Amino acid sequence: MSQEDGLKKIISHAKEYGFVFPSSEIYDGLSAAYDYGQLGSELKNNIKNYWWTSMVRMNDNIVGIDAAIFMHPTTWKASGHVDAFNDPLIDNKDSNKRYRADVLIEDHIAKIDKKIDKDVAKGFKRFGDDFNEAEFRATNPNVLRRQASIDEINRKFKEAMNDDNLAAVKALIEELGIVCPISGSKNWTDVRQFNLMFNTELGAVSGDAGIIYLRPETAQGIFVNYLNVQKSGRMKIPFGIAQIGKAFRNEIIARQFIFRMREFEQMEMQFFIKPGTQTEWYEHWKEERKKWHSALGLGDENYRFHDHIKLAHYADAACDIEFNFPMGFKELEGIHSRTDFDLKSHEEFSGKKLRYFDPESKESYVPYVVETSIGLDRMFLAVLSSAYTEETLEGGNERTVLRIPPALAPVKVAVLPLIKKDGLPEKAKEILKSIRLKHNVQYDEKDAIGRRYRRQDAIGTPLCITVDHDTLNDDAVTVRERDGMTQERIAIVDLPAYVEARVGLETLFS
Ligand code: GAP
Question: Closest Cα to residue 183, out of 311, 97, 269, 74?
């Protein structure tokens, strides 16, 4: 299946089963905005809950807040977003389509990367089990030539961006012979900077004085509350402030479903530390975030770290955790060593001291910050896309199953009376009641049991509980597990503990 087909299938499955709908669809939708449906919002809440629990509940020194989306406009002057939150933009004169210049170059590099993967696959085919991939990558002349060309493109691009030399970025696009995917032409405009913040007017004030921005990151709500939280919570450095909330960016190209949206959600944590300790904490949080992802079991091979080529205006070190989405490896999360840039700048612009007095060393300083920032919608796509599986079963039947990590599944348990009479529905509803306070449970009595299993597989329900005639005598039920389709008989009295051990959040922390 091609990458494009893979993503299309996920988009259509997500709509059919109530995970994600195009926004305002009856008016033909709005580009890069999506609505989460009845199952999508459950999955989203479960991802948030996993993040919040691991950040805030499991760390004595991290607390959570919920700041307003609208902030004083000077916030964004101080943070550098008014002047520097730009993307390099380029138009194709024949198709009138607008692109991000850096994305055109990244896509070109991805094509060369794919050729390397093909060389490696050929090597595998030729040498079978004796094939040594690492050695092949280090010595094969084709691979080395292609890698050298990637390194050279990256070098030139980094130099151009660091020098703010947009003419050099255009020259690179021309040198690489990049064509517009729509018109196929190389008829490009100059590259120019485009600010990504949305603005609107506040209340009755008109003109520039009334302009406020929709926040492009949640982090600034944490920075401006740093002192409030530190003092009211009597926090001692090192400590963190976490937040989950909406962010808005006027993305030039918004595509690939919920991967790049204009309204999205972030889960961010700013960790305030003593200056000079940033390298140690940066490595610490890289490791911690890796563990968080790994516990979900989406496959460690589907993640990789990517150091930033061009550091943001606030960072002295930064990397992405990339995930193998249906469209290839792309950024899922950022880990940034933000120095004291933000707090210092807010001190300067607000005239208020944002310092920490260290009671042990008796010194006062502006803390440094290491940030972890993950897009909730991208995490949703990572979970959904890696879960989507089409299987041919023994006997030739097909099923589509979402192998969502059980603790994140939108519906944890389906309770199914074998038939709609003889007291089975009543017994099933009693069971439902005993579980629903802790877990999202569905009741289904329509159609043959096989069809009901398929419906639950398609939405990723880890456990199906079937109530049959024997249940009325032995007070036990048949529990069917989603992935292996194995079945076992469990006493009703043991069900709450049985379910919890398989789908509870705790399973991710063992
Ligand atoms: N506070 C730092 C910050 O905002 P970022 O790398 O620009 O850093 C962090 O964004 C994360 O937010 C990204 O790794 C990505 O998961 C998510 N994100 C950024 N732009 C997005 C968009 N347009 N749509 C969906 N998610 C986005």
Answer: 97
Tokens for 402, please give them.
């979402």
Could you say which of 129, 160, 195 is where a domain stops?
195
Mean pLDDT calculated for residue range 452-475? 97
Q: Are 332 and 322 in contact (CB under 8 A)?
A: yes
Please tell me whether the peptide bond between 238 and the residue prior to it is cis, using omega within 30 degrees of 0: yes
Mutate to test the pocket of ligand 1, among 303, 335, 373 (most ligand atoms within 8 A of CB): 373
pTM for this structure?
A: 0.88
Evaluated on CA atoms 50, 31, 249, 6, the torsion sign reads positive
Which of 169, 195, 221 delimits the end of a domain?
195
Q: Is 297 left (phi over 0), alpha (psi -120 to 50) or beta?
A: left
* pLDDT tens, residue by residue, 359-387: 888 999 999 999 999 999 999 999 999 99
Comparing 399 with 210, the larger pLDDT belongs to 399
Residue 66, domain extent:
1-72+196-392
Question: In ligand 1, which atom is closest to the CA atom of 261?
Answer: 24
Residue 218 CA: distances (Å) to CA of 38, 70, 81, 396, 428:
26, 10, 13, 50, 44
Atom of ligand 1 nearest to the CA of 249: 23
**417: which strand partners?**
467
Count of structural domains, the chain:
3
Instruction: List the beta strands (DSSP E) in 152-223.
Output: 192-195, 199-201, 211-213
**217 within ligand 1 shell (Cβ under 6 A):** yes
For the chain, the residue count is 510
Amino acid at 164: D
Integer Cα distance of 325 and 217 in angstroms: 23
What is the rounded distance in angstroms from the CA atom of residue 411 to the CA atom of residue 463? 9
Q: Return the H-helix or E-strand segment holding 350.
A: helix 341-350
